[in-house]
Amino acid sequence: QVQLVESGGGLVQAGGSLRLSCAASGRASGSYVMGWFRQAPGKEREFVATISRGGFGTYYAVSVKGRFTISRDNAKNTGYLRMTNLKPEDTAIYYCAVSFQTTGSNGRSWSQYDYWGQGTQVTVSS
User: When comparing pLDDT for 1 and 122, which is higher?
Assistant: First the structure.
């Protein structure tokens, strides 16, 4: 069992930055792949980024590549999503999730993830 708590969301103007955090408890951080997903009103949950167990492998959705950076600190059992040059279309609830079943940076589908946080709202105004 893993408990995940996201934080760091908020309201920001277009072009601004935010850093989301995902604090995990319950299992050793290095034992799972971590991912970030988002869901905008009326849309399906979509993949944003994923990072391997050791933090050396990452993969991003095309829509955020070059603007978002995923990272993790296994000593602190915490994952991060640094978001820069934010756009109104980035507005969504952002969820972190962990997967014990996938490897490397291959966790690109929500179905691969075993535990989810409750989400944090990110709103980007134009």
Answer: 122
